[in-house]
Write a structure and sequence with these properties.
Its EC number is 3.6.1.17. By secondary structure, the chain is α/β, with parallel strands linked by helices. It is 30% helix and 19% strand. It binds manganese (II) ion. Manganese (II) ion (MN) is lined by residues 45, 74-76, 139, 192.
């Protein structure tokens, strides 16, 4: 398989369009289509914080539904799904921007966006095992002993990472560096924790380069293992990037 997997987009439609163009996709049909039938992969957190979450829902759903794109949910996707279910979720940490976009829609358009997002979410696995088990897409990564399993712990890990339950002084959750200890054969591609440059360690790569915080939007071309990035149009926010020792 030939797939281009994109890191956390967070409503950055403009960067998504630029990145797919740089990857050789054509936008003639208003959706990125590759002339050699490469496909796109979405690593989760397609919405929240950026200005175009609705557009990213439409793009991701249509590419998944009609063109074989792969998607796994992130924690922000999970929260939006629970919002659509009518659960009592807190409209903050980025969800407020998506809700503000939704509130401007007509009832008809709102119901359409709700329906397609829920369809996408309901039909997507917590993580994808691709290429005969050689490649795994998981939003926040996955531990080797969780691969192939589906339970509450696995769900929490792939959505939030290896969190300790503690928080840093700035409110961000404390996360263990699972990638450093990963010894599995499958190559794990993930995002969730913004880093200044893609972080490749062992058989893992984090491609969340903080597009919504003024970094880059990054894709990994598989199986070529080439990284392709575009600069964010947004102001750079230093404190949002994790620096690993
Ligand atoms: Mn995330």
């Amino acid at each position: 398989m030939k797939i281009d997997i994109i890191g956390d987009i967070h409503g950055c439609f403009q960067e998504f369009k630029e990145l797919t163009q740089k990857l050789g996709y054509s936008w003639e049909s208003n959706f990125p289509i590759h002339p050699e039938k490469r496909i796109l992969g979405f690593i989760g957190d397609i919405t929240d914080r950026g200005t175009d979450s609705i557009k990213m829902i439409e793009q991701t759903w249509a590419l998944w539904k009609n063109h074989g794109a792969y998607y796994v949910p992130g924690n922000h996707c999970n929260k939006l799904y629970r919002y659509f279910l009518g659960r009592n979720v807190q409209i903050k940490h980025g969800l407020e921007t998506t809700v503000a976009e939704l509130e401007k829609l007509s009832d008809k358009k709102f119901n359409h966006i709700k329906r397609v997002f829920m369809e996408l979410y309901d039909n997507s696995p917590l993580y994808h095992i691709l290429d005969d088990g050689q490649l795994i897409m998981a939003h926040a990564g996955i531990r080797e002993d969780y691969i192939g399993k589906q339970n509450k712990s696995v769900k929490s890990f792939v959505l939030y990472g290896d969190v300790t339950g503690e928080t840093l002084p700035d409110g961000r959750p404390v996360r263990r560096d699972w990638a450093k200890h990963y010894k599995g054969k499958a190559f794990i591609i993930y995002g969730h924790t913004p880093v200044k440059q893609p972080r490749k360690i062992g058989n893992t790569i984090n491609i969340d380069t903080g597009a919504v915080f003024g970094g880059y939007l990054t894709a990994l071309r598989y199986p070529e293992m080439e990284l392709v990035s575009v600069s964010s149009s947004l102001p750079y926010i230093e404190g949002k990037f994790t620096i690993f020792p």
